[in-house]
Design a protein that fits this description.
- It contains nine helices and twelve strands.
- It has 272 residues and is an alpha/beta fold.
- A six-stranded mixed β-sheet has the order 6-7-8-3-9-10, with helices on both faces. Strands 2-1-4-5 form a four-stranded antiparallel β-sheet, covered by helices on one side.
- The two termini are 31 Å apart.
Length: 272
């Protein structure tokens, strides 16, 4: 198993935000994190990336306990793809992608020919090589997200962590990004992705971690986790989970928030 999280707890000094979380995912799989705002998804990512101290439990990537790894060693195992990236300087796309190679040479070394080749290979993989010499700040939101994924690929890590990567994208770019995640998993990567759309794991996920108040509400396959009962318990609103078939005969899952019998009351729970 490429990623194994066991009994993990941690947070921001005074107390744990994430408590006793266990889950796993392997190469070739997509693990989707789902849950309302404040449920602990981002904190779990920060623990996974070594940005926060874990008070209990363990995170193992490719059989190695991350608590024993240096930041450089960890960067060779896991790459982070934020939901939005605002550049400070007007780098070219190629420059941004080559930054993914930083863990492979020291601060006093310049990128080598092999690093440049790896950057071009990542751009080709994402089908954005024609953008190599464009200014990164001139790109659209969808193009920037593809560049950041290329940077993560260039990092040569097998575990890709995506924090709500489609949050700021239009519908077409959202669909394209989901397709990219599927392609990356098919290529041998393990993709860990958070999302506010329960339909995403139902469509592309191999495993789903549903979180509530820092704990595991459910973990398993999309069919096991994305149910009306689980979603109602976590989000505090009535939900229907409907299966339909599109025009090509592909099975699709749709999650529908419902108006209550009293005219759309929320039942007192958290909302997303």
């Amino acid at each position: 198993m490429l990623l194994e999280i066991s009994g993990l707890s941690g947070g921001y000094g005074a107390g744990d935000v994430v408590r006793d979380v266990s889950c796993s995912a392997d190469a070739g799989e997509i693990l989707c994190l789902v849950g309302p705002n404040g449920c602990g998804k981002t904190t779990l990512f920060r623990l996974l990336l070594g940005m926060l101290h874990q008070s209990a439990g363990s995170i193992c990537i490719d059989g190695r306990d991350t608590a024993s790894l240096s930041p450089r060693e960890l960067a060779k195992l896991v790459a982070y793809i934020p939901q939005y990236h605002t550049p400070v300087f007007s780098y070219t796309v190629l420059d941004v992608v080559m930054m993914g190679r930083a863990a492979h040479f020291s601060a006093f070394e310049a990128p080598k020919a092999a690093d440049r080749e790896a950057a071009f290979a990542a751009l080709e993989k994402m089908r954005i090589a024609p953008l190599a010499n464009r200014s990164y700040i001139s790109l659209s939101g969808g193009q920037r997200q593809m560049v950041i994924i290329a940077r993560a690929i260039c990092q040569s890590a097998r575990l890709l962590v995506m924090d709500e990567p489609a949050a700021n994208l239009d519908y077409a770019n959202h669909k394209r990004l989901m397709d990219v995640a599927v392609e990356l998993a098919a290529g041998g990567y393990c993709v860990v992705m958070s999302t506010h759309a329960p339909e995403d794991p139902a469509s592309i996920g191999s495993r789903v971690l549903l979180m509530h108040e820092g704990r595991v509400a459910a973990f398993g396959t999309p069919e096991e986790v994305i149910t009306s009962g689980n979603l109602e318990r976590v989000y505090g609103i009535s939900m229907d989970v409907v299966t339909v078939f599109d025009r090509y005969g592909k099975k699709r899952t749709i999650c529908l928030p419902l108006d209550g019998p009293g005219g759309g009351e929320y039942g007192g729970g958290e909302t997303c």
